[in-house]
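User: Can you help me understand a structure? I only have the sequence.
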Amino acid sequence: MEGLHQVIDYNLEACCKAAPQQMDRVRRVVSRVPTEDTRCLKMFRKAVDTILSFAFSRFASSTMDLSSFTSEAERTRCGVPEQAEHPPSTMKTSSASRSNLLYYLLSLGKDNASYYQGHISAASEPDERFLELTAVLRVMSVHIPEVEQSAARLAETAPLFDFPGVEGNGYRSLLQIVDACVVKLLEANVYMRNNREKFHFRVHSSLTDIRNYVEVLGTLRAMLKYTERMIDVEVAAGTHDLFPGNTSDDDNSDLLEDWLLRVETLDQTCFFGSCTAFHVCPSIRAALHTITTALATFAEKYQSLELENPGSGPEALKYLGSNLLASRKFIMDPELKAQALVTSTRELDITFCKAFWSVSESRFFEPVHWWMLPKADLNREILIEPESFTLPKIALNEGEMEEEVFIKPPSAHIGERPLMVRLLSTRIREGQLFIDANDTVKSYKLPSRVLPKSDYLLFHAHGGGFVAQSSKACDLYLREWADHLQIPILSVDYTLAPEGPYPRAVEETFYAYCWALRYAHKLGWTGKKIVLVGDSAGGNLVFGVAFQAFAQSIRMPDGILALYAPLFTRYTPSPSRVISLMDPLIPIGDFLFAIRTCTNYRSLFSLLAESCF
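Assistant: Let's start by predicting it. Here is the structure, written out as tokens:
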């Protein structure tokens, strides 16, 4: 028993900062065990596993060295070799800790497999659950050495792809996802070992958890192998580019073909079932589970309507309420949800993507907006006619004569058309035109109701992959912004693809920006400060506006806020593209549809993608 107390003290000293109350509880439990108690070994295992469970949670969110969390006795029992000394490198330290935990997971798997193999050998008719469990654990034991080897190499080379002073890139993110999967498998195997002899233990439940995460580990193993291929390309070229072979299709055609045939054809269902978003924090995980369930439910209704009457799929929005009630089968069976989601995103067309991404604009959510969002005195759509006008040119050198820049309306692909923008303001300001309940245009002239013009204007471009959503869908946060900032907000409704592919959206957003500069007095704005804001595709567009303003020497925006903007829209293999295979918010099939629809990109990638999807 004295040795047990020494082990507990050793681990408590390392873990006290992680969870002091829980560690004290373990100390008290162990101190009450008599020296002659024959259950000493079981208590030893339980105490060490309790400590490790807290270490696992810390490991999932940090790169600290966890060798100190596993006692020397436990490492000896599990057959884990002593950790060699490493220089103080974050990635190498993390790699050593990962190796220790993988060895520990391997030993746990062998222990559980041996236990149930004994039950199989002793029974005249083996339990099918035991047979499946031992098979799954054998598969896990095959994956672990390969994952360890690939992860070790990735950990060694990932720092070479960092920006100066920033320890972060897609390779590091992929390693964190692998770590999260290992932690989940450790937790499941530790739970099984500690409870397998108890009467209330449910083998099927633990089998399901382990099987699902072993499938995830197997897919991650394949993804790691492909990232090694990308690293080989960069090492051979003598560069450290996150986009290997980033010159032309001819230069990286082999890599693209390997990507499409090996990676994008992987079975992604393991990422969208009960393991959905396992690598993110619990609060976001719950939201993503809800979104994927809604997507699978909507896809089922969409497909049924298309079969009954081709072209009627978007009408699934009308049945949104009943669809939510029908989603219980996907809640009860997450793997069925995963299959429906992967099938829909790979087989359905862009119309399905546009319909689902526009669900927040349906009448179902209008009462929610009315009750929960701040009230706005002004929330009006303005139709901008396609007419030319001039703006003053910025003088680059002193003494230059004032010139003007001629601004033409957008004309790409579909010719000149009116452009819709939305003006929001919580309070009415001078110069703004409004529509009252009788749909008549008037100006409020009462001093008590009209505020002076604002010195600031927020210019907004919505997201949606260039193919969906509108300024109305962004009411959820635009009203909050307008209420908090107390400034007018102008949001542009650019033409969506495929009706208006690139560069139509860029032209229209730039034209709306120029119109705001030209007619600032109509917006309740003095013209002093303007900030561009865009999320996702909108972030791409606001950068395009800034580039156009610079190229034409007109006034530049005073600031840009681009939220998760895709600034490299060409579909080139990269570590972040690998991770996108498991993205529950924008599945890879939807992403491919959006890119092809927006850019009309026809190349080797397009031909292979069409054959794969």
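Now, to help you interpret it: The first strand starts at residue 378 and ends at 384. The domain at 365-563 is CATH 3.40.50.1820 (Rossmann fold). Let me know which part you'd like to focus on.
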